[in-house]
Every structure is written in C-alpha cells, then in structure tokens.
Specification:
Layout: H1 5-8, H2 16-25, H3 28-41, H4 47-60, H5 66-71, H6 82-94, H7 98-110, H8 117-129, H9 133-144, H10 150-164, E1 173-181, H11 188-198, E2 201-207, H12 213-218, H13 223-227, E3 231-235, H14 250-271, E4 275-279, H15 292-295, H16 300-314, E5 319-322, H17 324-331, H18 333-336, H19 339-345, H20 354-368, E6 375-378, H21 389-396, H22 404-421, E7 425-431, H23 434-443, E8 456-460, H24 464-475, E9 482-485, H25 489-498, H26 514-520, H27 531-534, H28 536-552, H29 556-563, E10 565-570, H30 574-586, H31 599-607, E11 611-620, E12 623-635, E13 642-650, H32 659-673, E14 678-683, H33 695-698, E15 702-706, E16 712-717, E17 729-731
Parallel strand pairs: 1-2, 1-3, 3-4, 4-5, 6-7, 6-9, 7-8, 10-17, 13-14
Antiparallel strand pairs: 10-11, 11-12, 12-13, 14-16, 15-16
Helix pairs in contact: 2-4, 6-7, 7-8, 8-9, 8-10, 9-10, 10-11, 11-20, 14-16, 21-23, 28-29
Length: about 725
Amino acid sequence: MPNHISLDIQYLKLNETIASALLTQCADADLLSLIDNFVNVFQEYDKALLDTYLAAIERCGMFRTEALEMRLSADSQWRQNAMGLWLSARMLEISGQSDLALGVWGEVIDRSTGAVHDAYLSRARLRGQLGLLSDAFADLRQAISGQEDPIFLSKAARVFERLIRRGGPPATRLARIAILMSTTPDLLVPLLRLACFRDGISADLYIAPYGNLQQEILNPTSDLYRFEPDVVVIGTSWRDANLSAWSDNPDSEVRRVVTEIQQLWETLLQRQACRIIQHNFDQPAVDSYGHLSLAFRGGRGHMLREINRYLLDSAPAAVTLLDLDHVSACYGRRVWNDATYWHTAKQYPGAEALPFLVDHQVALIRAGLGLMRKVLVLDLDNTLWGGVIGEDGLEGIRLGPPSAVGEAYQEIQRYAVELKARGILLAVCSKNNEVDAKSPFLHHDAMILQLSDFVAFHANWLDKPTNLRAIADQLNLGIDSLVFLDDSPVERALVRRELPDVAVPELGPDPADFVAALERGRYFEALALSQEDLERHQSYQANALRDELRTTAGSLEEFLCNLNMVAEAGSFNEPVLTRVVQLIGKTNQFNLTTRRHSEEQLRRMMASDEYWTCYVKLRDRFGDNGLVGLIVTRQNTDDAGTWEIDTWLMSCRVIGRQMERFMLRTMADAARAYGVQRIYGVYIPTTKNAMVANLYGQLGFESIGRLANGTENYVLDLTICDVPPCAFIRTETSIVC
C-alpha cells in the first residue's frame, strides 16, 4: 500500500465509492497502519464508512492482534470521540468480547446528547444474543422510538423477530389483530408488529391472503372467524373503489361502493365482536382529467370524496375510519403512490411511506385499547418561549410577533390549549425558580397559555425524572400517561434513560417544527369524545381543592362528610355507553380483572338477561366528577342464585372516597332483588392493579382459592353477610336492573 494513504483518508468522507475502493484494496498488513488515521480524521460517527472499514478488518481476521487490543483498551485515544467508540464496540463484538462490548455501547449511549438509535439497536441485538431479554427489549424500544426510516425499522424488525423467538416482550395489552388488504402485506406486517411492541401491545396477527378481503369477511367458515380478532384492519385504497376516470352516473357509482363497504361491516360485526379500522379512499397521484376530476361530479376524484363523506356519516360505533386520503396527502402523494412498487410487487403504498401508514394504524389500535396518553408535560425555557426567563427577563424572551421565532413558540402554546380543550391535561416541569417561571404567564401579553391551564406546575431545581414522577403521583396516574416536551437533548436523553415509559418526542433546533414533532407520535389519538373528556381539566382542578380540604380536615371522616357527595347509579344505556367503553379500555389501577370489552360486546350484554350492568356518577361540593365507576356481573347458567363479577373498575380520580363501598352496596341490593344469594369475584393481577389486590377481603368477601399466578377467587354470601350502606355518599336514584 503506498505511503500516501494517510493523506488519502482525508478525502474518503467526500466520496463513499472512493472510500470503499481504497479500503477493499488495502493490503491486510496496512489496515492497522490506517486505523488510527481513520479514527482521528472521522471524529463523528459515520455508519456507512464504519461498516466498509469493519468489513475490511473482519476479512483479514486481525481482531486478536496485540496492536488492536491496545487500541480497544479503556484508556485508548479511540475512546475519546464518537467514531472511536463505535469502532471499539463493533470490534469487541466481532472478536467475541461481548461483555466488554456491552460496556462500550453503554458509553456510546451515555455520551450522546441525542437519540442514538443505531447504538440502542446494536446493544439490543447483543443483549439478545447473551440472553438478557428484558434489557434487549428495553433497548429495542428506545431504538425505534420516533424512527421513520423504513430501512432502519426493517432491520429493527428482524432483531425483534429474533428476540421474540427467545421469549415474549413485556406488554401492557394483548390484542388479536386481523389484517385484510387488497395489496401485498409482506413489508407492512413486520413494521406493524414492531410498532405494536413499541406501544406496549403484544400483537397476535392474522394476515389474510393477499386480495381475499371480501372472501374472508363473507365466508362464515373463513380463517378470519376462527382467529376471533379483537381488531380488524380493512386496508383499502383508491383502486379498490373500481371507479373509471369519468362516470355519467356518479351517484350510482358512489352508492355501489358505499353499499359494498357497509355490507362488509354489517356481516363482520354480526359474526364477530370486534373493532373495525377501515381505510377510506385516497386520491390517486395522477388523474387524466386533472383538476376536472375534483371539480365535476362525474370525476373520479369527486366521487372518491363523496364516498368518504358517506362512509364517515354512516359508520357504526364499532367502525373507525382511518383517513387514508389525509394521511397520503400529508406524506406526499407522489412518493405514496410508488408506481414501481405497485407494478412489480403490488405493494401500496410505496415502501418508504409504510412506517407513516403503520404509525396511524397502530395509533387507532392503541386508542381502541385505551392506551392513549393523558398528560402533556411542558418544559418552559426555549420550549414555550425563546430564551431563559431567569437570565433574559420578560423583555428578553422571544414570544409572539413580529419575530418569526416568537410566533413559532406561540403556535406551540396554541396547540397545547387545543389539546386541553379536548381533555388532555397540561403540566409544567422546568428547572427554574418558581417565581421566574410563573412571571410570563402573569405578565407577558403574548402568552397564550395561562397558569389556570395547568393541573400541575413543578418549577424547581430537582432533576426532570424526579419531577415527572411527582406529577404522575399528584395526578394519580401512571408514569406511562405522560408525554414530555423539552428542547434540551440532554434532558430528553436523561428522561428516556430513567423513565422509559414516558413518551419523549425528539425535537430539532427549530421551534417551528415542535408541533409537528409532537403530532408525529400521535400520542393522544382517541376514538371518541365524551362529556367527561371536555370537563377533565375542571375536574382535576377541583381535585386540587379537594386535596386542600383533606389537609385541613381533622380526620378522614370529617373530610368525607364535608365533601357532600351525591351518586347516581343506573344500568348501561346509550347516553353513557361512550364513556363506559372509555373507562373499560383505559382503567388499569382500580380494575379487578382488567377485562376489556368492545362497544359491540357491551351492547350484547345490555340486551341480555344474563348480565347485570351498573354505572355510577359522582358529584360533590367542588363539582361533577362524571361517570367514574362501573360493574358488570353475569348470572351463573348452572345456578340462578349466583352472580359472577365480570368487570369492576373505578376511575383513579375518586379513589379514597369510599366509592367502592357504595358500589358494593348497590350491587348487593340489586342481587337480593333478583333472588341472588352469592356473588363471586376474581382478582386477576397485572403490573398496574396491585392497589386492589386485597379489595375483596376488605369488603367482606371470603377467599376460596388462589392460583400460582396470583389470581384469587372470592365469594360473598348474601344470606349471612350484611353489606352496610356507605355513610358518606347519598343517592338520588336507586336501581334494580
């Protein structure tokens, strides 16, 4: 190898082809002489160049040489920059020194100021090989968080498949998901499974044969019905409408397509209690009629829009429309409609757009399972305004016009206010003096957010993870309910490492992109909007007043008496059904079985004499809490004198007010009215419902058996047990359903 290689390396990063040629032609003996120049010149990690160099090194099998071992030592100059750290970690792996490699991957991650997706993925793969599955899954989730690159995600999906062959990942929910598409699903399915894992869903997937969408639904003995899905994704696109570019009878064409889709819904829901996620019809990227296609009723574009409108207006509660037309437009129709992929593989949309589509699909699946986030936690300096309030003062921060940057910060605030209006709670987590932190809200005319918009305000000098835990505790919510928005890559990395269940969007340097980054995660996607959602902020503010009353009361009994609580109980009905579905889907802490029921399943229960259903609303001196609890029991078919509790849950907002005793008395009164003598209950433990592990025993039930997994069965004999009324809650209605 000529001596001028030390000079040539300066030019390698200008041309990947040159780099590859020089490295592959380099004699084995010269690779080590090149290696220090390689690390010194490339201070930053360059994956493509690193892989090329590693391939050359691996080819000559030099990983055990003494010269290389010196370079891999902890005090080597390699460990002083990003490229050297990456090279060290990879070489230690290839040479079989896995434990040392794990340590170096940790250095790569800890010394980064942002999300190091490749490093997390590499460590996940290595930990999986070593059998450290729990840690491997945690790394993989960090690796794919916020990622949209299809090549990277496909690689991550392969790592995921290897990991799950060794053992299942931790999951918040299990879901049986059927995918029915008229296009090839091969590239979409691994990405969908991976995205479900990312969001805490263990997905059991059924993939219908390509192009068999209608047959699967219409055939009562198809594999679809044997699979018994919880969720069915019907992946249609504009081609499935079978519309010509122009029609002389557009109304008939529109009716045909709408009727076909509606009949599929009706058939599927009659045979299977599930939620349907239906793609609507996107617009083709190319239309021979151009703008005329949308401007005139006979145009294909106009007919597609009419079809979408009718589908949206006629969709039953169990059907959610995924607005494919909007999604494809946001992504870019020309890239979405990749003609090469369509003609060669019947792949639609193009591979590059698949992660974007999958994120929207999984967001709706997640929402149907009650896994939406509930709280947006906001940093202040350089997140809600430009500058540092403690240093720049009110006059020095950038907020509002005429500054373009100031207007971008206003847009973030405006978006947060809109989230609050639809039921998302807002909180502050800032390293600041509290007086300084509050001053813009009190005295700056350009502020859109006000102090009254927040249900928690933590401005101090504690670390961010500590404050985020305190916010979750204050609101009586799980840490996985939080989304944390912070401009600092250091703070984001810390929160991701310490609190992996908190969603942390990756933000760039431009505040004009903050809203898009937050929107990209679709953390707050929901399927319905209830009155309780619209009043949630006021409800949590009222909780603060209740907490104040609790601290001033002389005893718990005095506090409960002073609340003046009034309950309303009733059987499930149409006006409350949306809220009932929400509670069943998302309540995890005070939930004795965590069984999930769809709206269709609940309707069947409401219509059946076999089930007794009860909802409970609560109001007090500080306001209306809305619908906060529910019970579903089923009559034992072999014993008419027995009820079995299928579902018993309560909102975290009213924990500690003896609502559970009121609900038990309501259930016992109804049971006696129906001649029921015994009520059986079961506690099924989960990662989040430990708070009710002993509830049955505390309420007078007798334990009749405990399984090895912690599940415990109880019975309440109403012939010998008296269930006293709750002294602190009165009711203006009574029910015997």
